[in-house]
Amino acid sequence: GSIYVLVLIAGLDLKHEAQQLSGISSSLLVQLLRHPPSGSQDATGLVLSNKIIPAVAYLRQILPMNLTALFSSSDLASWGLNFPIDASNLEASDKFFDTI
User: Fold this and answer.
1) Is the pTM here over 0.85, yes or no?
2) Is the peptide bond before 84 cis (omega within 30 degrees of 0)?
């Protein structure tokens, strides 16, 4: 999920570079992560497919996160969120962040 990309950015100390992205660039990055360009000549697709996506998958494996641990169950229920919310579930984590 998207939270793991943030962990990757923080862990690699890429805060400054991430802040340089405009709204269009960050939304493009999200689309690229979801659907990397295919083809052996596409440098962006190769970096995403061979480096970033495996790094995120590894983080998901070694660092399972339950987003519902951040708030009380009564708050989550009042917001209409089911729990637990696994951070590796992109749809559930997106709904979580859209809600809060």
Assistant:
1) no
2) yes
